[in-house]
């Protein structure tokens, strides 16, 4: 999948594009593993993400577990379909979600 | 019912997705339901590819009477009833929560009915959604 990102010191913004599912989630996971070291502020900007499945949730959850140890993480531009999935899996209170 | 035959490779998810999208469009199904079905397809097809050891997978889809959309996954892998998977504890403390086990839970929450049956050496998993 195409992943846009910007890094400013220890702040990283990641913008995955398209659908985050079984086929594409490993690409995002690999990107995070390569880039998360030293990051204290991680933002997933989901404005160009159509939807995610549990494979995508796993990537976000594992990133959250890492960021709980080294800084802060948030999601922004979460569309209604993605919010539905976060809601049904009890993750709306786990992630900081920016309006 | 229409049918498509697939190989047990992860990228064949896109073939199933396109196949089902074509049928749903012909039924004037709202985009929101199409997205929900796509997610359910990813959960089910992804699990079959990853865990079943199936050599062949087929998918049957179509509308039944009274506006119910039916989608069946048939594979020749190990007998496995995903409906018996434990329900994830979504209210547990996040640090104690495993990051997996959410797939079939999402399917159950997303569609109206899920049925499983093993017969003639094949797993049959059928989901139904009111359009």
Key terms for this structure?
heterodimer; A: 99 residues; alpha/beta; Transcription Regulator spoIIAA; five-stranded mixed beta sheet; two-stranded parallel ribbon; 3 helices; 7 strands; B: 131 residues; alpha+beta; Heat Shock Protein 90; five-stranded antiparallel beta sheet
Span between N and C termini of chain B?
Answer: 16 Å
Mean pLDDT of chain A: 97
CATH superfamily of chain A: STAS domain
Radius of gyration of chain B: 15 Å
Query: How many beta-strand runs of chain B?
Result: 5
- Series of secondary-structure elements of chain A, N-terminal to C-terminal: EEEHEEHEHE
Low-confidence stretches of chain A: none
Helix/strand layout:
The complex is a heterodimer of chains A (99) and B (131).
Chain A: E1 3-8, E2 11-16, E3 18-20, H1 25-35, E4 41-45, E5 49-52, H2 54-70, E6 72-76, H3 80-88, E7 96-98
Helix pairs in contact in A: 1-2
Chain B: E1 2-6, H1 13-26, H2 31-52, E2 57-63, E3 68-75, H3 103-110, E4 113-119, E5 122-130
Antiparallel strand pairs in B: 1-2, 2-3, 3-5, 4-5
Short description:
By secondary structure, chain A is of the alpha/beta class. Chain A has helices at 25-35, 54-70, 80-88; strands at 3-8, 11-16, 18-20, 41-45, 49-52, 72-76, 96-98. In chain A, helix 3 links the parallel strand 6 and strand 7 (96-98).
How is this structure best described in words?
The complex is a heterodimer of chains A (99) and B (131). Chain A has 99 residues and is an alpha/beta fold. In chain A, the strands form two sheets. Chain A has a five-stranded mixed beta sheet with strand order 1-2-4-6-7, covered by helices on one side. In chain A, strand 1 and strand 2 form a beta hairpin. Helix content of chain A is 37%, strand content 32%. Chain A has one domain: STAS domain (Transcription Regulator spoIIAA, 2-Layer Sandwich). The longest helix of chain A has 17 residues. In chain B, strand 4 and strand 5 form a beta hairpin. Chain B is of the alpha+beta class and 131 residues long. Chain B is built from three helices and five strands, in the order βααββαββ. Chain B is globular and about 45 Å long. Chain B has a single domain, classed as Heat Shock Protein 90 (2-Layer Sandwich). The model of chain B has no long low-confidence stretch (mean pLDDT 95). In chain B, helix 1 runs antiparallel to helix 2 and helix 2 runs antiparallel to helix 3. In chain B, 31% of the residues are buried. Chain B has a five-stranded antiparallel beta sheet with strand order 1-2-3-5-4, with helices on one face. Classes of the chains: A alpha/beta (99), B alpha+beta (131). Chains A and B meet through strand 5, helix 2 and helix 3 of A and helix 2 and helix 3 of B.
